[in-house]
Amino acid sequence: MVRGRTTKSLSYEILIFVPLPFLFYVTIKGMDKIIKTISENGAFRAYVLDSTETVRTAQEKHQTLASSTVALGRTLIASQILAANEKGDTKITVKVLGTSSLGAIITVADTKGTVKGYVQNSGVDIKKTATGEVLVGPFVGNGEFLVITDYGTGNPYHSMTPLVSGEIGEDLAFYLTESQQTPSAIGLNVLLDTNDKVKVAGGFLLQVLPGAKEEEITRFEKRIQEMPAISTLLESENHIEALLSAIYGNEPYKRLSEEELRFQCDCSKERFLNALSSLPKSDLEEMRDEDHGAEITCQFCQSTYHFDEKDLEELIRDKS
Ligand SMILES: [Zn+2]
Predict the structure, then answer these.
(1) Largest CB tally within 10 Å, which of 1, 95, 219, 312?
(2) Same domain, 211 and 306
(3) Where in or outside the cell is it found (predicted)?
(4) From ligand 1's centre to the CA of 272, what distance in Å?
């Protein structure tokens, strides 16, 4: 009897002490994820991603309009895919350096599943009149797809290919095939609801590994060509499973891992203080005397940090 009561009061306490935001997050939002798989014979590997919350967070932080949301979202997914291909503590920066009205799109992803990013022009909102389809490619324009891989050694590795269409998915596929010499099929997209808010975002990467037989490659190629459009698959109730069955058909495969993905910035007041400390003393004095402080907004997440006269005074003193 006593034991029963103890158990009951204990579980009551546990219920009370579960942080409310956590409950809210799990039930309302769900967590983005990437599932890594390999065909049973080891000749093909595929990643499938749910990036809905990642892109939704990016849209909320940057207040992007339709074309800007889709362009930034696709680039965030592209860098999640590239980071998933790396090991250890590696950072991948993707710079879509187009010449059209969206401006540059910059994203940074790491091997721990976090990604941050921004689009220079958050206000592009162009749709086809007939279908309402959100247009991206023409507003990225021509330019370069630049990938910077930082293994933490202080010598980041730069690799660049021209933009093929500005639709990001095709540009990433071309980059992987050209610079990494790995035949790759990519599908990624962001779907918006009638209010232009993110409805679903995700994608897949399929790669041919060394040792794949010619007839196997033909079989996979045929299936990829015949698979429904990525937008249709993303509309499925469980798009992760829909993508996997579209990629593998009836072929046996193994799930290697399931990892969480999220939009998260690593900025802090301390980081910006370091950036301020690299400014010339005269600039800092001007900020102190004329502006009576400084305010810095992080490009990647729009967080704003305030530095008062005392903060600036300390930086100036350190320089004397
Ligand atoms: Zn930030």
Answers:
(1) 312
(2) no
(3) Cytoplasm
(4) 10
Average pLDDT of the chain, as a whole number: 90
What pTM was computed for the model?
Answer: 0.88
57 and 196 assigned to the same domain? yes
Tokens at 238, concatenated: 């469980």
CA of 275 to the centre of ligand 1 (A): 13
Query: Tens digits of per-residue pLDDT, 140-192?
Result: 999 999 999 999 988 999 999 999 999 999 999 999 989 888 888 999 999 99
Please report whether residue 15 resides in a domain.
no
Question: 36-58 b/e with 16+ CB inside 10 Å = b?
Answer: bbbbeeebbbbbbbbbbbbbbbb
One domain for residues 170 and 290: no
> How many Å lie between the centroid of ligand 1 and the Cα of residue 6?
46
Q: What is the residue range of 271's domain?
A: 267-317
pLDDT at 182 (0 to 100):
84
| Pair (252, 297) in one structural domain | no
